[in-house]
Every structure is written in structure tokens, then in C-alpha cells.
Amino acid sequence: MTDLLERTITKLRDLSVEQQDEIAMMILEELEDDSKWERSFASSQNVLAKLAEEAMAEYRAGETEELFPKKS
Questions:
Q1: What is the rounded CA–CA span in Å between residue 10 and residue 5?
Q2: What confidence tier does 72 reach under pLDDT thresholds 50, 70, 90?
Q3: How many CA atoms, within 13 angstroms, populate the side-chain half-sphere of residue 64?
Q4: What does pTM read for this prediction?
Q5: Which of 46 and 9 is assigned the larger pLDDT?
Q6: Residue 21 and residue 17: Cα distance in Å, rounded?
Q7: CA distances in angstroms from 14 to 58, 59, 61, listed in the order given
């Protein structure tokens, strides 16, 4: 465990049980969100590669045009 995490846990011990549970839930939710994103990106690599191939084929076939966003 890192020093930073150990210091954080030491401070958390001084909080009420309710506050500890709230923070624990936030951390668990954040970790689960990260896992969901990682799984989502891992499973989408083939789809993204296919879309990129299609876009390049359209570009090479002259079926695209440059985008000139409005300047404010």
C-alpha cells in the first residue's frame, strides 16, 4: 500500500461510520466505473478499427470533404 493511501485511511478512521461508508461507496463506484470503461473499450477495438477502415476508404475514394468549423 502506498504512503498516500495509508495516510488517507488513517484520516478516514477518524470519521463517523456513516461518513466512512459514504466515502467507501464513492470509491467502489469509481473503481467499478473504471472497470466498465476498460471492458467497453477492450470490446470495441474491432468495431473502431472497422470504422476507421471505412473512413479511410471513403477518403481515398474522394467521398469526404474538409470540415471548416465556424470561427467565433
A1: 9
A2: low
A3: 11
A4: 0.50
A5: 9
A6: 6
A7: 61, 60, 65
**By C-alpha distance, which of 35, 26, 29, 33 is closest to 8?**
26
18 vs 11: CA distance, rounded Å? 14
Phi-psi region of 65 (alpha: psi -120 to 50; beta: other; left: phi over 0): beta
Contact 64, 58 (CB under 8 A): yes
Contact criterion met (CB below 8 Å) for 23 and 12: yes
Residues 6+ apart with CB under 8 A from 12: 20, 23
**pLDDT above 80 for 71:** no
Mean pLDDT of 37-66: 87
Measured CA distances, 26 to 21, 32, 33, 48, 52 (Å): 9, 10, 10, 31, 36
